[in-house]
């Protein structure tokens, strides 16, 4: 038995070539599947990234709007491209959650959305507040506020909310951004999304001037 | 066939298997992550909706109170409620109490605030700043110039407080101090009334004590009344004494129910006290909390009260609530809202 094994002549060249050929075909097949899989995954990720970004933004805005407070020295004011409000913000540190009454501003300028947070304590000091760019390459960002007429239950969305009206009952944000659909030619599509926020402790704006 | 050839086939097969299983595992992990993110989103949406529903249930419980002039812990709306009858398969807890059990921070004289904080300190609460400074800061923020506390050049609002969180903006009130004093204070109170008025049935013993200590009279009699109220509350909780009724709001009734002698000093103190107490509650605190679950507990705190009952009127004066038909028909409106962990 031992003798037989040691006298083995080994494999023929043709056998080796065939083996390599089969392996190559197999690997080529697997690689194609893998590559197309990865390409599809990357495309989905490119598409879903703006969706996740806006979803995260809306979740944060909703949380901050729900924790708004009435404070007439830094009241809620709203325009088409920006809104400012007083709210209690939670900040997390290692051992505790602290709440800080702050003035929060969302502003759309130069195709990006910025958020500024400034503590309300010592509000009139020189403190500029902390400004962060949240989303870049936005095509549009429009904020509207809930108004009503006393004669109808229908909500009318208006572009401004002047100070002195308290907090709005509802807020509507419409934003659009570019979504890259093609990889090589950088083909983009406009992605538009609208979200309405309901504020439990807000009040309706009223359209009647006489009231 | 030789052994070495058999080995090469096995090796190739193994390599393929490893590659494929890597692919499968990565796809699986990614899918799991996505599913988890979606489920967190779903749970958080569901929780927010539930909080809103629970507050509506609270509104219903409060509005179905038959004797709304006499509010006490025996009323059906008061205290904690299990929501399992209302919201199926959900373990949410609802807690309702009245805002009139607390001292109105806009109407309380600085002395009452000082006495309240001193009483709390005597009961073991440790403040960052001393009670006198806290009370002075709050009074200054409202635009007053109290007799105690150190002078300051801090920017003062000079207006009433519009929300409880605004207390943290007053000079000496730190976040810890706010957590300590906020259970005993409110910014809501019956419209048109100038006086501080608490509900004698629901107000905590410390709140009643702070008011009694601020009355003019001799210290010994004040301590006696405070002790009598404290004992009486204990009896009320145990059930051996009834809660106060509207007809009890008379000096002789209070003295006799508290078993106090009708001396001139006592009568004078109770007469003064009657200006600061009542039985009617119009503003309610609602707390909804999720008891258990896979995700972090979520809670909401809301104050319900009469429409337009915010601390500072926000609507133009000419606006009438009763006229147009599409105004909210329920008389309780959500005045404040806070949600978080």
SSE layout and pairing:
The complex is a heterodimer of chains A (211) and B (341).
Chain A: H1 2-6, H2 13-66, E1 77-78, E2 82-92, E3 97-109, E4 112-119, E5 130-135, E6 138-149, E7 152-158, E8 170-180, E9 188-198, E10 205-206
Parallel strand pairs in A: 6-10
Antiparallel strand pairs in A: 1-2, 2-3, 3-4, 4-5, 6-7, 6-8, 8-9
Chain B: H1 3-63, E1 79-82, E2 92-98, E3 103-104, H2 110-122, H3 131-141, H4 175-181, E4 185-186, E5 198-199, H5 205-214, H6 219-238, H7 251-257, H8 264-273, E6 277-278, E7 284-290, E8 299-306, E9 332-340
Helix pairs in contact in B: 2-3, 2-5, 5-6, 7-8
Poorly predicted runs of 5 or more residues of chain B: 310-330
Number of helices, where a helix is a run of at least 4 consecutive DSSP H or I residues of chain B:
8
Distance between the termini of chain A: 109 Å
Total domains of chain A: 1
Radius of gyration of chain A: 30 Å
Instruction: List SSEs of chain A in N-to-C order.
Output: HHEEEEEEEEEE
Order of helices and strands of chain B: HEEEHHHEEHHHHEEEE
User: Helical content of chain B, roughly?
Assistant: 40-55%
Query: What's the total count of β strands of chain A?
Result: 10
**Strand order of the biggest β-sheet of chain A:** 1-2-3-4-5
Strand order of the largest sheet of chain B: 1-2-7-8-9
Tell the overall outline of chain A: elongated
Oligomer designation? heterodimer
By DSSP (H or I, 4+ residues per run), the number of helices of chain A equals 2
Measured as a percent range, the helix fraction of chain A is: 25-40%
């Amino acid at each position: 038995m031992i003798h037989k094994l040691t006298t083995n002549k080994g494999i023929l060249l043709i056998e080796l070539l065939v083996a390599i050929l089969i392996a190559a075909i197999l690997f080529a097949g697997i690689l194609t599947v893998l590559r197309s899989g990865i390409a599809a995954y990357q495309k989905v990720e490119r598409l879903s990234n703006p969706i996740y970004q806006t979803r995260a933004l809306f979740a944060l805005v909703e949380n901050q709007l729900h924790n708004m407070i009435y404070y007439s020295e830094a009241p809620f004011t709203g325009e088409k491209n920006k809104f400012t409000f007083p709210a209690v913000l939670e900040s997390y540190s290692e051992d505790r959650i602290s709440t800080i009454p702050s003035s929060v501003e969302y502003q759309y300028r130069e195709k990006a959305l910025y958020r500024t947070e400034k503590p309300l304590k010592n509000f009139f000091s020189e403190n500029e507040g902390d400004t962060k760019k949240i989303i870049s390459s936005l095509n549009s960002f429009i904020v509207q506020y809930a108004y009503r007429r006393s004669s109808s239950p229908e909500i009318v969305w208006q572009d401004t909310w002047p100070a002195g009206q308290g907090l709005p009952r509802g807020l509507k944000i419409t934003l659009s951004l570019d979504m890259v659909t093609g990889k090589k030619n950088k083909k983009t599509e406009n992605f538009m999304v609208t979200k309405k926020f309901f504020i439990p402790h807000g009040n309706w704006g009223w359209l009647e001037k006489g009231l | 066939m030789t052994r070495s050839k058999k080995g090469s086939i096995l090796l190739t097969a193994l390599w393929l298997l490893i590659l494929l299983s890597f692919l499968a595992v990565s796809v699986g992990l990614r899918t799991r992550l996505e599913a988890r993110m979606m489920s967190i989103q779903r749970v958080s949406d569901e929780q927010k909706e539930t909080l809103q529903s629970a507050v509506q249930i609270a509104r219903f419980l409060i509005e179905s109170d038959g004797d709304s002039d006499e509010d006490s812990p025996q009323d059906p709306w008061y205290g904690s409620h299990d929501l399992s009858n209302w919201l199926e398969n959900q373990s949410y807890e609802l807690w309702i109490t009245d805002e009139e059990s607390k001292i109105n921070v806009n109407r309380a004289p600085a002395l009452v605030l000082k006495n309240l904080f001193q009483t709390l300190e005597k009961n073991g609460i440790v403040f960052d700043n001393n009670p006198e400074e806290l009370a002075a800061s709050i009074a200054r923020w409202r635009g007053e110039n109290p007799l105690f506390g150190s002078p300051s050049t801090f920017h003062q609002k000079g207006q009433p407080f519009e929300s409880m969180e605004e207390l943290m903006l007053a000079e000496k009130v730190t976040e810890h101090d706010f957590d300590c004093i906020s259970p005993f204070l409110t910014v809501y109170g019956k419209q048109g009334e100038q006086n501080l008025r608490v509900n004698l049935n629901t107000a905590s013993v410390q709140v009643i004590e702070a008011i009694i200590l601020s009355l003019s009279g001799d210290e010994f009699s004040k301590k006696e009344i405070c002790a009598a109220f404290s004992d009486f509350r204990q009896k009320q909780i145990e059930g051996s004494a009834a809660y106060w009724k509207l007809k009890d709001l008379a000096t002789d009734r209070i003295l006799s129910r508290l078993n106090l002698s009708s001396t001139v000093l006592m009568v004078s103190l109770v007469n003064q006290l009657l200006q600061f107490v009542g039985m009617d509650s119009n503003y309610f605190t609602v707390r909804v909390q999720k008891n258990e679950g896979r995700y972090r507990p979520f809670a909401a705190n809301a104050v319900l009260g009469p429409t337009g009952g915010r601390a500072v009127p926000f609507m133009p004066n000419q606006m009438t609530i009763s006229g147009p038909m599409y105004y909210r028909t329920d008389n309780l409106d959500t005045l404040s809202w806070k949600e978080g962990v």
